[in-house]
Amino acid sequence: MWSRAELKLKAKESLSYFFGKGLAVCVILVSISFAVRRLYNFLMSMFGVNDEVQKNYVDYIVNYIRYGSKYAGYTEKTPTMGAIIFAVVLMLLYYAYIYFIYEPMDIGVSRFYQRSRGITTSVSEMFSPLDYSPRIAGTVFIRDLKIFLWTLLLIVPGIIKSYEYYMVPYILAENPEISTKRAFEISKAMTDGHKWDLFVLDLSFILWDLGVVCTCGLLAVYVAPYIRATHAEAYYKLKAEVVAGGSVSLTELPDICK
What we know:
Layout: H1 4-46, H2 51-54, H3 57-67, H4 81-115, H5 133-153, H6 155-164, H7 168-174, H8 180-191, H9 195-203, H10 206-214, H11 220-245
Helix pairs in contact: 1-4, 1-11, 4-5, 4-7, 4-11, 5-6, 5-8, 8-11
């Protein structure tokens, strides 16, 4: 059994050896994401497609298909069909970026923190999962879809399932070639009996998160690496339990921090 204090202490000890690089991978990920989002908003605004109009896409498209030119839409705020098509294509490209580039890099950051527990690791490690982008994208998309569908039933089942799939990204970080089905099976085994522990672990950072808000993001320089390192420690604690129990082998999840 493990405690939150134990995980956080070990995370702080680990960070003392690679804090600079740990911060760098977080900054790189956030910077790329910020730049892409700004570009996305800029291209949308070029065609007069602002946030208010975007909220009406589904309603507008559905009614346009049903009523054609007879549908009045939103008077002067109604975007042209050309702008609608452009916006839809751009949104599809944006979500392709999310699943095929951002998610693999985010998993790459987790991989960096996992490896850094035991060896000197290069910042470039965060880009290594991009070699498995289609496989990772498929697994993450299925995870998000499952959580979304469970959330449609009720919020609580959605939260429970999100913690059941909590370790999927970390499993992919350690073995990006693992099958989607097996990644879910292992995550379920790892989080069985620990969902509440993981939930409370996340809640324990709430004061740190408030500190980030109060300092206009400045405190994130420390908080982001600290949380990442703590999650890496939690992953290895849970992994050790399922390996000891025989439900997972080190062939499936080779220890990349050695």
